[in-house]
Specification:
It comes from Azoarcus indigens. One of its GO terms (cellular component) is periplasmic space. Keywords: Electron transport, Heme, Iron, Metal-binding, Oxidoreductase, Periplasm, Peroxidase, Signal, Transport. The protein is mainly α. It folds into two domains: 131 residues, Cytochrome c-like domain (Cytochrome Bc1 Complex, Chain D, domain 2, Orthogonal Bundle), CATH 1.10.760.10; 126 residues, Orthogonal Bundle (Cytochrome Bc1 Complex, Chain D, domain 2). It has eleven helices and six strands.
């Protein structure tokens, strides 16, 4: 394999996309492809539901509250704020590119986006509703009834349809077009020397063992604190809470590094406030390596090239409530 002066592989694999030939470098990270929408009506319904706060007890919290699409698909808080200002137990992961993950939530307790979508609605510390009450609200809104009938062939609203539609929308929230993707596709001018040096260091250090593929992560569960113990006040126990196995304690889903400059603070407990801090901690605890300030700067420069085109769309107009729609209870 031929290398350039920075040690980056130049080998390419011929690929065909959108009817024209383009080249992809032979790297452990692959470019993100644009979303393919096969059912636009379902996606539009899911978008409304994603932004609708009436799926919460308070009538104030929507999916977008914790996964703000204007803020990298997260809320930039150490832990999210739920019903009645309840402090969340864990940092909200980004919803962007989440369809590429092996499972959903830090502990992987939901197998896919559809299963995940129902969790926050019924969680008393998040949206604090029930699935039955959420369905009652939607069933009382004529605009939603008509939309569910158009998409699913029946005017009967069911939680399975609600989560299916939300998942369909979330599957479109991918972020292609990053500078790194352009470099992967053969544009030698897309990255500068500092960014390329950061990527080489990222690879040579072993970061790509976990952070690989199109999402640059999300495909495995790993123990937090392999070389040194991770000290935290968080009570989250990772996969052990799902599997009941002690060996899974502190095993968390490896987060995607796509758009990582937008999704601060970092780690499951939100303890690292900056990318520089996160790189330093991960180097020491996961790799047993103490990066210099210059090396940290190079890796951070590379990580910022992973910011892609953010989802862009017209905000949905939500159908008005009817006289029969249960009213919100913002203050218990």
């Amino acid at each position: 394999m031929k290398l350039n002066s920075t040690g980056i592989a130049l080998a390419v694999v011929a690929t065909v996309a959108a009817g024209s030939a383009w080249a992809v470098r032979d790297e452990p990270i692959q470019p993100i492809q644009p979303a393919k929408v096969t059912n636009p009506a379902k996606v539009e319904l899911g978008k409304r539901l994603f932004f609708d706060p009436r799926l919460s007890r308070s009538g104030f919290i929507s999916c977008n509250s914790c996964h703000n699409l204007s803020m990298g698909g997260s809320d930039n808080l150490q832990t999210s704020i739920g019903h009645n200002w309840t402090k969340g137990p864990i940092n909200a992961p980004t919803v962007l590119n989440s369809s590429m993950a092996v499972a959903q939530f830090w502990d992987g307790r939901a197998k896919d986006l559809k299963e995940q979508a129902g969790g926050p609605i019924a969680n008393p510390g998040e949206m604090a509703f029930t699935h039955d009450l959420a369905v009652d609200v939607l069933q009382s809104i004529p605009g939603y009834v008509a939309e569910f009938k158009a998409v699913y062939g029946s005017s009967r609203v069911e939680i399975d349809k609600v989560t299916d539609a939300i998942a369909a929308f979330e599957e479109t929230l991918v972020t292609p077009g990053s500078a790194f993707d352009k470099w992967l596709q053969g544009d030698d001018k897309a990255l500068n020397k500092r960014e390329l040096a950061g990527y080489k260091l990222f690879k040579d250090s072993g970061c790509v063992a976990c952070h690989n593929g199109p999402a640059v992560g999300g495909s495995s569960f790993q123990k937090m604190g392999l070389v040194e113990p991770y000290v935290t006040k968080s009570g989250a126990e990772g996969r052990a809470g799902v599997t009941g196995k002690d060996e899974d304690r502190f095993n968390f889903k490896v987060p995607t590094l796509r758009n990582v400059e937008l999704t601060y603070p970092y780690f499951h407990d939100g303890q690292a406030q900056t990318l520089e801090e996160a790189v330093d901690v991960m180097g020491r605890l996961q790799l047993g390596r103490k990066y210099s300030k210059e090396e940290i700067g190079q890796i951070v420069a590379f990580l910022k090239t992973l910011t892609g085109d953010q989802p862009s769309f017209i905000l949905p107009l939500l159908p008005p409530s009817s006289n029969e729609t249960p009213r919100p209870v913002p203050f218990d």
